[in-house]
Structures are given as structure tokens and as C-alpha cells.
Automatic annotation (TrEMBL):
Annotated DUF4143 domain residues: 197-359
Organism field: Acetitomaculum ruminis DSM 5522
AAA domain location: 20-150
Superkingdom in the source lineage: Bacteria
Name the record gives this protein: AAA domain-containing protein
InterPro entries per record: AAA_14, DUF4143, P-loop_NTPase
Amino acid sequence: MIIKRDAYMNQLIERQNNGMIKVITGIRRCGKSFLLFRLYKEYLVNSGVDPEHIIEIVLDGIESEELRNPKVCYTYIKGRITDNEKYYILLDEVQFLERFEEVLNSLLRIENVDVYVTGSNSKFLSKDIITEFRGRGDEIHIYPLTFSEFYAAFGGEYDDAWDEYLNYGGLPALLDMNSPKQKMNYLKSIFDNVYMKDVIDRNRIKNIDEINTLVDILASSIGSLTNPTKISNTFATKRHSSYTNKTISAHIEFLEEAYLISKANRYDIKGRKYIAANLKYYFTDVGLRNARLSFRQQEPKHLMENIVYNELLVRGYQVDVGIVEVNQKNSEGKSIRKQLEVDFVTNMGSQRYYIQVAYDFSAKEKQKQEYNSFRNIPDSFKKIVLVNGSSKPWRNEDGFVIMGMKFFLINEDSLDF
């Protein structure tokens, strides 16, 4: 099955022949190799590039065992370059190549080559790129399928596709699986045997039970405020464990580096400052999150929120969790300070959107709750409530935009409506 990844293809095309190493990163099994070796190679050939000028090496295959030696690999590539025309070098799973940093930096010194690599998140992370290539690496980070990509390949009705995506997420391999059991087993297996193994092996973690429990806690609390100290206290009181907040912070960072989770910081909208006390964590793929909890803890609102968060990241926004401080009267008539939450504050350049996510928006009390946060924001940036369903955008009497999830996810420029 061919799944178009146009957003990432456009990034590759924009960076073609820019004199830098194009480094495709992302969680395992999200389609990095397919993007480079199928979609981008087809683009090059269709653009008139001679296939002999495309040098492909899949370094995790047995056929490439000898090429994992840096000198052998470099000599092989140099030997394939026989004229002054442009050559495109595509290296898959480059972390299998010994001293890959030296090889890639050496390739950059050849004038008529353009280099593209994919790397596993267990040994080849964003911070490694920054450190090793010193400004000569150009990262393209890709995610599992967005809902619009999934829906286009699914071939069924929207409601069926939405239920499927909400349960099993967007890893491309799932589209070729038929039974729920097969999908659940696949997700559980790769979570334990690929993603967690990567994290544990890379960081030489010894307290494996604790980090596994930490992952379960984070999976259970998507969309909820937390911090390492709070998690540490939970371990101390309920599990009688000395899993310190310092170790928890380090382990959370390892999970972020492996692209399993990402964090949304809290931003004080009125005070225009970040608040370090609490933040939220979301999973890169909701299917992996659900599999981690054996598909037992299905909260549609929190899953919707996670999907919206990932969609905003894919579209290139910086995403924070917003708070608005207000003065209110308590039952005794005393003035108290209260923090109202805005699910997401999204920024790109000078543009900003405030977004609330509401699974069930029919109750007046729920509408009042979501609108109240917006009413206390002292600026004129667009304020949007995303609701379950397929309703097209409309504005209420306060000027707030109410938009169905289908419209938001299917239309790339939906926030501008």
C-alpha cells in the first residue's frame, strides 16, 4: 500500500542539494525508510535523475554487513561516483555504520553528492545530530500517520476510520492488518521489544521495573498535569520505592529522546511566562499508549486531546498548555485567585491560536467552562473549541470558533477558517 507523506516529501524537496546532511528521524516503524527509499527515490527518478546516480545502502541488512566498516563503506561510495554529475546517497539505519559521523562528514567534502540518512531513535537522536555534525545536519522529523493520512489510506467511512485511529493509532503497518487481535499484539510487541528495549539498552537502565511502571503512569495520565516529584511521591507511598524525582526526570527525558512521549509546558497567558511546576505529557502515537495499558483505559476526551496535540506538532506549531489567572468570589464572598486552563496555546511565528478540546459539548455547563477561559484572555488571537464530530466551523456570539474534529484533522489549514 502506497501512503503519501506529502508534508515530509515537501521538506525533502525543499532541502535538496542544500549542502547539508538530511537526517530523517522519528519513532521506529513510522515510515522513515519508506519515505526515503520509495517515495523520495521515485521523485528523484521522475525528476530526471539517473538511477545509477542514486546510491542506496540499507545498513541493517545482512547484505550490507561489510559496509558497516567505515573505510569499506566510504571506499564503496567513492567508487560508485564516476563522473561530475550529482549523486544522491541514501543510507538507512546509519547507526549500524561504525564511526558514521566521520563517514558522513567526509562525504560532505565531496562536491557532487547530496546525502540523506535515516537513524534509529535508540542510538541516533536529535542531540546527537547537533553534537556530531555541528550545524551541517538538517533534521526532518516524521511522525506516525496523521489522521488525514490514515483516512486517505483506510478506504472506509469516516466514523469507522476514526474509531480505528482512536484505538490503534497511526503506525503504517496496521493498515495491512485485518483483525483487532493482530493489531493489539503488534502494538504490544513492538512497545516492549523495540521501543522499551531501545530506551533501556541505550541508557543502560538497571531498574527496569521502575521505568516500566513510570511508562504506565504516564500512559494513564495523558492530558493531566504532573511532574517528577508528584510521581516520586506516588512511588514512595503506594509502592514503597525510593525512585527519586531526579531519576524519574532522567528516565522521562530518555523516553522523550526516544520519541515515545513529548511534553507540553504550562504557559501563563496573562503573565506571559512559563510555569515550571507542572506540565503534561502526551504519547507520540495513541495506539502505542493504548497498547501499553492493554486497551483497558480508553478516555475519548484525553485521546482526542493527544491526537490534537500531535497534529499541531506535525503542522509545525509550538504547543503549550495555557493557564489564565482570575479573581473570583468563594462561597464566603472572599476574593480568591483561580487558574483556568486552556488546553493548548499554539504559536508559529507571530500567529497564535487558543484551543480547547471537548469530546461532549452539548451540556451548557461544559460550554460555560470552555468559554470562561477564553473570555478571560486579554488579547484578540483566535479562540477555537474542537468538538467530537464533523461539524464545519461556526462562530458563536462571543466570536469563538466551534469546529468538528473531522474538519480540523482533514483540512490542513483548518485553523485559518
